[in-house]
Every structure is written in C-alpha cells, then in structure tokens.
Amino acid sequence: MSTISKKICLIGDFGVGKTSLIRRFVDRQFSDKYLSTVGVKISRKSVEVNQSEQDNNLKLQLLIWDIEGSNKFKEVSKNYFQGATGAIIVGDITNPESLDNISEHLQRFLNTNPKAKAVIALNKSDLIDAEFVEKYRHIYSFEDNSSFVLTYATSAKTGTNVDDIFQSLANSII
User: Fold this and answer.
1) pTM for the whole thing?
2) In what order do the strands lie in the sheet with 86-92?
3) Segment (H or E) for 151
4) What is the enclosing helix (H) or strand (E) of 111?
5) Tens-level pLDDT at each residue, the chain (174 residues)
6) How far apart are CA 138 and CA 153, in angstroms?
7) How many helices (H) and strands (E) does the chain have?
8) Strand ranges in 18-131 using DSSP code E only, listed in sequence order
C-alpha cells in the first residue's frame, strides 16, 4: 500500500473548536480547557482511501494545519493556505457570527487554492436541538461551488461526525 501526504487546513473564527476537532480526530481526546492556537500548529494522521474498486486502498497522510482564528491574523493566514489540497471550514453552531463568516473563510481559502476541496463543519452541535442542527446544515451548504464537498454537524466533545469530516475530505482530494 502506497502512502502520499496532503496538506489540509482547518479554518474558522476564534474559539469555534478547530483544535478540539483535531485533538478528537488525531488523539481521540477532548478537553473542556480552552487552548488558543498561536499562528499555526501542524498535526498528522494517516487514513485509508479507496481510489476505485479495482485499485488497492491508498494510505493518505493528512498534514493538518490548525490555523489561528483571530481577525488580526486574516491577512497572514493566506500564506499558510498555500499548497493545501483541502480545508475544513469550522463554525460554532451556537455562535451566529462565526456561521456568518464561513463563506468568507471558504472564499479566502479558494482564492489561494482554486482546485482544492472544502468541507464545512458546524461544530458544537451537541449544544442545540437536532431540528435546528438540520436547518443550519441546509443553510450552510454551498452546492453551487464545485470545491464544496459536504456540510456536517460535528461535536468534538461527543465525537459526532469528526472522523467523517476528515475521511470525506480525504476521499475528495484523491
């Protein structure tokens, strides 16, 4: 089985749970203690992707760039996007302002990487009623954009759809 590496970025406002999603995916851990990312932190994890029914599975090493979410960092962050083949755009489903900024984050990323793929993660979905989760998932779908893969309601705390966002992105960038 061959292994290739691909750079992906987690992008979103300050405090939406980007680092928590990565910790849940890579380390299988969750902590209520808030850890602010300064600049960028890089993690890695391998996943298997199925190229086609005839081919063997491919091992894909994801180089996961956790990018600081502060507003003062927006201009610098574009430099961190370069060379990425995918992104997970994260919004806090309990914070309307962070949801409103999803399309801006998506556009800034795709301006740097027009051929990349993107998944939307509406994080902290364990904190609101399921009926509202589905409503938000529908609102924050960008199906008219060819780079868009899917929108997921996620919870780093419970692990809901955390593996799915990374696996879906990995499958789409191969």
Assistant:
1) 0.90
2) 40-50, 57-67, 3-12, 86-92, 117-123, 148-153
3) strand 148-153
4) helix 102-112
5) 678 999 999 999 999 999 999 999 999 988 777 666 656 789 999 999 976 665 677 899 999 999 887 655 556 667 889 999 999 999 999 999 999 999 999 999 999 999 999 999 999 999 999 889 999 998 999 888 989 999 999 999 999 999 999 999 999 998
6) 10
7) 6, 6
8) 40-50, 57-67, 86-92, 117-123
> Which of 3, 6, 95, 90 has its CA nearest to residue 42?
6
Sign of the Cα torsion 117, 84, 74, 162 reads positive
Half-sphere exposure (Cβ direction) of 71: Cα atoms closer than 13 Å: 3
Within 8 A by CB and 6+ apart from 29, the residues are: 23
Distance CA 174, CA 21 (A): 22
Structural domains of the chain, with CATH: 3-173 (3.40.50.300)
Could you give the angle at which helices 102-112 and 74-81 cross, rounded to 10 degrees? 50
Residue at token pair 């399309």: 103
Q: Where are the alpha helices (DSSP H) in 117-161?
A: 130-139
Contact (CB, 8 A) for 117 and 169: yes
Length of the chain: 174
